Amino acid sequence: MAEPRSRGNRISGRRTLADFKVYSRGYVRNRVGLFFGLIFPVILILIFGAIFSGTSSGTVTVYVQNQDIGPFLSPEMNIASQFVDALNRSGTVTVVMVPTSEDMTRYLANHSSSDGVIIPAGFSADYLAAQPINVTVYGNPSSSTSSIVSGTVSGVANYLNLQRFGGSSVIGIEQATVNAQQTKYIDFLIPGLIGFSILVSPMFSLVNISSEYKKTKLFKQLSLTPLNKMEWLTSKVMWYIVLSTVSFILMVIVGVALFGAHITLTPWIIPFLVLGPTLFAAMGMLVGTVSKNPETAGVVGNIVTFPMMFLAGTFFPISIMPDWLQSIAHVLPLYYVIEGLNNVMVYDNVPGALLDMAVVAVLTLIFFVAAVRLFKWRED
Amino acid sequence: MMPIDVRDLRKHYGEVKAVDGISFTVKEGEVFGLLGPNGAGKTTTIEVLEGLRKKDGGEAYVLGLDPWDDGYDLHNRIGVIPQEFNFFEKITPQEAIIYYASLFGVKVDADEILKAVLLEDSGKTLFENLSGGQKQKTGLALSLVNSPDLLFLDEPTTGLDPNARRAIWDVIKGLKAQGKTIILTTHYLDEAQQLSDRVAIMNHGHIVALGTVEDIIGQHGSGERLEIQGSEKLADFIRTSTGLEVESNGDVISILLTHKNDALAALEAAERSNMEWGDIRTRRDSLDDVFVKLVRGEVDESGEVIGGDRNG
């Protein structure tokens, strides 16, 4: 039975703000909520940032043993050292020199690495005399770092070969930076975890309070005041937008200060910080409303939340997942929030972000209307 | 216009007829008690009147309004404490009053309201740390924020210790003195007797008795009785020699007095019998006696019928 019209539709700013004030004050007084809302996502950044900070995709460590110790008549004749410098300048590898006294195979094993280069004795002299000479590249065919190393080494070798015969490159490579190529894991992690916090706090809180208030008759109590359910939900949404924004600021500070994350701060982030919490607050309320009791609501809430928590690109970019998992990710609302955040914060891809924003906006509208429609202050 | 006017009100939950055709009115400035065991239909009745539940049949007008259809307007004019009043854990009574004042759009003096419900010492304690009685007083305080003339108190003292209960009674008496109309449900007979001008006793969705406590006792009680300590043999002697209605229960003889002289006749017969007899006293049925008779059982602390035939 529909409720009387006078009850649901008018929104009073005074009542919404009064409810917002009471709810936010209560939230801040509850340390557990504050921990999960603000501190927990930052802890996740610290943990995941620390775990993966070593494998930023830009640099592969390569161990180089230079056995060519001269003698050289002039520094220009030390081709071996030019070779090492060229490797260093490539930007794709970080050179670590290995003393000539070490056995390369054992040294690599001791350093848990498979990537090494040996420049043999007499390398410079042979080069200058145009005698064929080989550098040895150690590598593991199954490791992606090894192909980076061998590619880099052959590039340097070709360059030196050309120089030796006075040739010049016809096809040059202009150094252009494609953002995606430079991004590090932490850069994905920050939008991912912002998405995580946009999802988790509003979702779990609204599932919990909308089922708990029903059980403890708090909704009944509130229905005896002029506050209506639209105002009630709006004030909750407002609070979770504030919370998500504070959480966003904390995560960006930690990510940039501690892990040197490269992220773009643009006003395009704001729609996601507003729509995201609205969407998940409405979803949480819907779950709490349709569930008979808080226990069922908790279970249903988890079923809805957990796939999004892990598969929507929160902790890992979804491009590393198999195709079938990626298809699942595409039906998760959080995916579009996180993809949108990635588009604006990492790729500067505003058109892409607009599409995500449109998807999120439509979903938000649907869930918000459904939640307000199905949710009842009173029983028939 | 009566503040509350109920005619043949009905509310069903599936097959269960929670309220099965009740009628009553509450006058202005009156404290009206709805008395009955758990499951009698008290809370359903009061929730229909508060506009929290939709009636299935009959008529109910509260301040001239239909409680369900005009609930929004009604709620501005009434004060309510639902059963087992509960509120946000992390709010103090004082903050709660200010919150309600902003919701109703009224200006109130929070301290004055706290004082009116004897809660001035706990105004700044978080709700979760309040005692049961203090929580209930917070509910009372909130029900007063919009200065209603009509108050609904659903089991306001259930589960409270005797001191807390008496404190709530004092508050309710104070509200009555201010001329507020109050409808109160309870399963405590002493509470109904202490506070109510009139009571309705409910059982199985029906009103089984309605009126002042005196009226109900007069109507449903068995009248004045003389009780004499004595044997069953003495009881038989008195019965045969006076022709009065005499019952014997262990060593207490109970004689129904229809006329004042019946007491004298009974005592004279006892004296004549030359048998042993001890203490004498007269007693009238109390509300308890009438209640036990009407609901066919006693009601325990939590409102459950004990020792009776509930489905009778």
Notes on the structure:
The complex is a heterodimer of chains A (380) and B (312). Chain A has 380 residues and is mainly α. Chain A has helices at 5-8, 13-29, 31-52, 79-89, 104-110, 123-128, 144-164, 179-182, 185-215, 218-223, 229-259, 269-290, 294-311, 323-329, 333-345, 350-374; strands spanning 60-66, 93-97, 116-119, 136-138. In chain B, a hairpin with a 5-residue loop joins β14 (298-299) and β15. Helix content of chain B is 35%, strand content 28%. Chain B has eleven helices and 15 strands. Chain B is of the alpha/beta class and 312 residues long. The longest helix of chain B has 16 residues, at 162-177. The A-B interface holds A 1, 4, 6-7, 14-15, 17-19, 21-22, 25-27, 29-30, 216-218, 220-221, 223-227, 378-380 and B 50-54, 68-73, 75-76, 78, 80, 82-91, 95, 99-100, 102-105, 126.
